[in-house]
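To fix ideas, we close by showing one paired sequence and structure record:
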Amino acid sequence: MKREKWMLPVTLLLLSGLLAAQSLTQSSVKAQVPFDFIVNNKIIPAGECVVGSAGLNGKILSIRNVDARTSALSVSSAGETRRASENTMLVFRRYGSQYFLSSVRLEGSARTYQLQESRAEAELRAQNVPASETILLASLK
C-alpha cells in the first residue's frame, strides 16, 4: 500500500518530463531575432525565425525565416542541464559582429538541443576571437 501511494506521483513526474523533452518534435520555437545569424554556414536574416524538428527523433533541426524565404538544416545533439529551463530560448554565440545559433532550450525541460558548429565558427574559435553568449527569449508555437 505504501508503494502504491508514491507510484502515481513518480509516474506523473516522469511523464511530464518526457512530454517536455519531446515538445520540440511536436511543436516549434518562434522568436524575433534582431540580427543576422549563421546556421550550418548559411546566413539567416534578422526577423521572425521558427526552429523545429525536421525528423521524428529531433536530431535534425530546421531553422526558417519565413518572410525572407530562407532556411537551413542543422544536426543537433541533445544535452541535459541540471535544472529545467524557466523559459524557451535561443542561445547564440557572438564573435565580433557575427552571430551563430548554438542551442535551443525549452521551457520546463532540462533538455538542450545543441547545434553542430559551422566551419566559419570553428575558424573564428581557432583564431582565438573572443566569444560571448546572447540569449533571446522565444515561445513555443
Observations:
- Confidence is low (pLDDT under 50) at residues 8-23.
- The longest strand covers residues 70-80.
